[in-house]
């Protein structure tokens, strides 16, 4: 018989969900039981009860330990979301009891930080200065993992990098423009237009292979008939990129245009007039389907969607 919601709701225990998460992390019943402060026999019985309830085995046992099967991956993913949502509920209740304004955790790609996220958070904090905020900057793929695990309320990034983009709500915000940048003292000519061939003599700072701007640079060099630089300096940090560009006039790199503009205004970098041929990637607001947002997170989403059209654009109570 197929498991029903009534069966699961009537018999499921939060500790069983926590045990699943521990098994996924440790791949060992003994270690998972120790992490849960349970005996191994109690952990084994709890897992058997859960598998019986769902009428499906969740793990495969091998010499490398316990590995979740297709059923296990599905249940563990939802277990992480449920446990995270319960934690968020407790935090929000505690915040209300303490008279604070709650907490919002948002993930963002680098290019959305200066012109999208920073003004939105400023508007949110102006209305609710007591609100606690957490911001994580990373690639869209990594941020979606944190969103799935319940560590983030929303992401400003791309849902299409996921193998299952249909699991998310997505609201586009704009295109991530990219600029070619150098330090202020770089010898590149200050002409009306440059091509990648004009930069052949300079050394590139590139990004780690899993980052979108690595692929973007590779496409642009291919289109220019050039090879990817073998002697490139590779990093995943915008701070390292800017610091190295400032310190070495022979370097050149890519940065999201909004980030580049910020450092240009501070007279730390200059943008070269190089026109990129690749289509710029769209980014937007990503939230989990079926997952509820706190009042504060809903207000942040409203501010982002309103496009920051003034202080009253998305006001409301948190």
Q: Please, could you describe this protein's structure?
A:
Belongs to the LysR transcriptional regulatory family. This is Transcriptional regulator, LysR family. This protein has 318 residues and is α/β, with parallel strands linked by helices. The chain has 3 domains: 5-78, Winged helix-like DNA-binding domain superfamily/Winged helix DNA-binding domain (Arc Repressor Mutant, subunit A); 100-175 and 282-306, 3-Layer(aba) Sandwich (D-Maltodextrin-Binding Protein, domain 2), CATH 3.40.190.10; 178-272, 3-Layer(aba) Sandwich (D-Maltodextrin-Binding Protein, domain 2). 43% of the residues lie in helices and 20% in strands. The chain has 11 helices and 12 strands. The protein has helices at residues 5-11, 14-26, 29-35, 40-54, 70-98, 113-127, 140-148, 212-223, 238-247, 257-265, 295-306, and strands spanning 59-62, 65-68, 103-108, 132-137, 154-157, 168-176, 178-183, 203-207, 233-235, 251-256, 269-272, 281-288. The strands form 3 sheets. Strands 4-3-5-12-6 form a 5-stranded mixed beta sheet, sandwiched between helices. Strands 9-8-10-7-11 form a 5-stranded mixed beta sheet. Strand 8, helix 8 (212-223) and strand 9 form a beta-alpha-beta unit. Helix 3 (29-35) packs across helix 4. The longest helix has 29 residues, at 70-98. The protein is elongated, with a radius of gyration of 24 Å. Mean pLDDT is 87; it is low at 308-318.
């Amino acid at each position: 018989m197929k498991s029903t919601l009534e069966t699961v709701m009537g018999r499921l225990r939060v500790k069983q969900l926590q045990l699943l998460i521990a098994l996924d992390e440790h791949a060992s019943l003994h270690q998972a039981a120790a992490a849960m402060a349970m005996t191994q026999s109690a952990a084994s019985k709890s897992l058997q009860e859960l598998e019986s309830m769902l009428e499906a085995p969740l793990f495969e046992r091998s010499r490398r330990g316990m590995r979740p099967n297709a059923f296990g991956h599905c249940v563990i993913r939802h277990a992480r979301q449920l446990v995270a949502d319960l934690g968020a509920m407790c935090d929000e209740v505690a915040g209300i009891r303490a008279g604070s304004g709650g907490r919002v955790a948002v993930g963002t790609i680098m290019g959305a930080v200066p012109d999208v996220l920073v003004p939105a958070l400023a508007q949110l904090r102006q209305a609710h200065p007591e609100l606690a905020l957490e911001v994580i900057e990373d690639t869209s793929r990594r941020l979606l993992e944190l969103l799935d695990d319940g560590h983030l309320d929303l992401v400003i990034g791309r849902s299409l990098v996921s193998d299952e983009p249909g699991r998310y709500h997505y609201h586009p915000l704009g295109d991530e423009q990219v600029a070619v940048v150098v330090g202020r003292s770089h010898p590149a000519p200050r002409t009306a237009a440059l091509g990648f061939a004009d930069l052949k003599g300079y050394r590139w700072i590139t990004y780690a292979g899993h980052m979108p701007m690595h692929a973007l640079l590779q496409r642009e060099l291919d289109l220019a008939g050039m090879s990817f630089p073998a002697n490139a300096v590779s990093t995943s940090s915008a701070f390292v990129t800017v610091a190295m560009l400032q310190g070495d006039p022979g370097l050149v790199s890519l940065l999201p245009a909004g980030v580049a503009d910020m450092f240009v205004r501070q007279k730390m970098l200059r943008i070269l007039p190089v026109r990129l041929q690749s289509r710029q990637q769209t980014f937007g607001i990503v939230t989990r389907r079926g997952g509820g947002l706190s009042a504060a997170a809903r207000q942040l989403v409203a501010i982002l969607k309103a496009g920051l059209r003034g202080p009253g654009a998305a006001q409301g109570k948190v």
